[in-house]
Amino acid sequence: MDILFWILLGFVAYLFISRMMPVKGINTITTNDLKNIVKQKDKQFIDVRMPGEYQANHIKQFKNMPLHQSKQTAQTLDKTKEIYVICQSGSRSMQGAKMLKKSGFTNITNVTGGMNAWR
Predict the structure, then answer these.
(1) Count of structural domains, the chain
(2) Mean of all residue pLDDT scores within the chain
């Protein structure tokens, strides 16, 4: 029974850590770095939080595209422009960034810390 517990615990830890690790082909920046970038018109800014979270607090340049709808909404994005993805903490945005990468986007940046770190 102890071995099964440790195997399960290791698997859960692996899943948790793998979601937080950087992914090849996806850049990461802090919210402090983002402050200079949001002024640039040639970028796409995506907020993958739920509509209620977005309405409560968001960055003006970011368009709300909830994570569960990302496959459908990705079709509306320009694959030639850089995309910045944000959520509340950086975890869901990394999931969204991975989905965009799988959909053929090549210039993707995840905002670590998300809205929790935005000031």
Answers:
(1) 1
(2) 91
